[in-house]
Structures are given as C-alpha cells and as structure tokens.
Amino acid sequence: MPHFRAAILGCGGRGRSHAAGYAAAPNAQIVACADPVVENAQALAEKHGGKAYADYRALLQEQKPDVVSICTWPHLHREMVEAAVAIGAKAIHCEKPMAPTWGDARAMHRAAEKAGVVMTFCHQRRFAPSFRAARDLVRGGAIGEVVRLEGYCSNMFDWGTHWFDMFHFFNEERPAAWVMAQIDVSSKRQVFGVPVETSGISHIAWPNDVWGLLITGHPPESPRLGKLVEREGIVIHGTEGRIEVAVTGGTRLRLRRFAGPDETPELPQEKDATVLSVLNLLDCLQTGDEPELSSRRALRATELIFATYESSRRRGRVTLPLEIDDSPLLTGLEEGFWKLE
Q1: pTM score > 0.85 for this model?
Q2: Which of 143, 140, 144 shows the shortest CA–CA distance to 132?
C-alpha cells in the first residue's frame, strides 16, 4: 500500500479537522504543518507529528509532501494551490469557498488538471448521513419526481457554496443551464475577509426540468421557516411529497408525503464528515477514481455563486457556462454599483 506524506497549510479549526483525517488513515502521515502564527503549527505538530513552519513556501520546498491540505482564507487558495502543484504534490485537499473570483477558481482547477494533480474542495456535507439518506430517498422515488431544490442560508459565498453543491448532489451532478438572480449589498458583511451580499435570491434551471431556489440573508427570527429547516437547510420538492434537511441546532431529516404521515428516518451514527473526505481522497489517489469532492464538482457549485452575482449585475438571465473572470459583487463595490449604507 502506498504511504502518503501529508502537510497542513493553516492550522486553525479546519486545519485540525483535516489533520484528524490523515491521523485516521492507515496510508498517510503528517510530516509538516504551517501557519503564520507558528504556535498554531507547533501545537498541531506536537499532536500529530511532523515539523512546524511559519512559512508555507519553505515547508513545500523542504518537505515536498505528496498531499497538501489548504485550510486558509479564500484569497490565499490560488497561490497555495499553484505552489503545491509546482513542487509536485500528488493531491490537494482545499477548504471552501474556492476563491474570491470566478477567474481564480477556474485557474486553480486548470492548474491541477494540467499537472495531473488530484484536487478536492471540502464540501464535506456530501458525507453527512442526513444528506446521503435524503439522496437515497430521492433515488428510491419516495417523493416521486424531483421538481425543485430549495435552500436557505446566510449568504451565497460561504454557506451558499454548500447548498449549490447539494443541489448538484441531489440532481445527479447535472450541470445547470442558466441562473436568474438578484442580490442586495447595502450593508457591510464579510466572510473570511470576502464581502458578501446582505440578502439575495438565486433561481436556477437544469435541462431535466428541475428548478433550484436559494434564499439568503433571512432575519434572525424566522419562526415559520424554523418549522421547515431552521435557519439553514434544504427542502427537496417532488411530485408526491418533500424532504427537509435542517442543520441548525443538530441535523434533522423529515420525509413528508402528500399521502400518508410524516416520517423521520433513523440515521446511522454520524462519523466526522471532514475525516471521511480525507479518507476518500486518499483512497481515490490509489484507485484512480474521481473523489466525491473533486474540483470539477466544486467548480460547478462555485459557478452558481458567481453566476448569481453576474445576473444581478446584468439585471438579467445568465446562460451557463459562465464566461467572466471577476467577482461581479467585488467589482460592483469598487465601481459604486452597490453602495453600502
């Protein structure tokens, strides 16, 4: 069995979660950790082994790891991905959101693809029992034919990347056809240093006659929404019922058929989804299979984020694939298209 040398770039909470995945793998060993706050890297190295660095570039040049986990803020992702590709890494497991702009997201994907590097982005909810059980119910015809995928969360960029990814997860990975959307950017809000909308709505169409709807920025108290999916969740509407998956305050899955009582399927004991994402990447690195969280799939979710922004900028429908390089939200703020209160 191959043995992979792994490195962690960014040793905060997400870096610790990735490290737990390598620690659980029989075919991997953490050889180094890097963080600008070197004490964070030292603490992680003390727990899992390896050498601590303050400079990630020094780590990559000296250690030349096989697998690199990038657990930093989005504006650093592209430079770190390209640096890991340059030193010959076999695989990269990066945190989401992919990047602050659509151009950077595509550039990372192309760089890894061209070099033959297996790259994944941590949309770890694909490994959560509630979402996998929901997809099994959909595939089994529990709600008839899927009509609409509906999501609620705080913003399109950070939370939204998960829900856009879940839309593809439930619609058998089909690429979307177009997006029509509107966002409001009237107050200053940032996630991981990247400005996000105050509120928004994104309407998505797929060629198989499935619609998507993502609503963001709802007020803190939404009692009626809470009866469905709390503040963050997904509703899958079908011709014969719906499935609700809530994640706020603990995961909940509920099946509601038009004919018959509600059901709350029993879920298996949940294993850590991030650990499972690391194990899946390492397994696919050996088998050559596409990882569940492949950059190809992450790119489709990311495209919907920036297509949402672009639709708002154009005041019209955006046909996919998306042919821009910037973030219309960031450009709009710079040019005064949106004015903060």
Answers
A1: yes
A2: 140
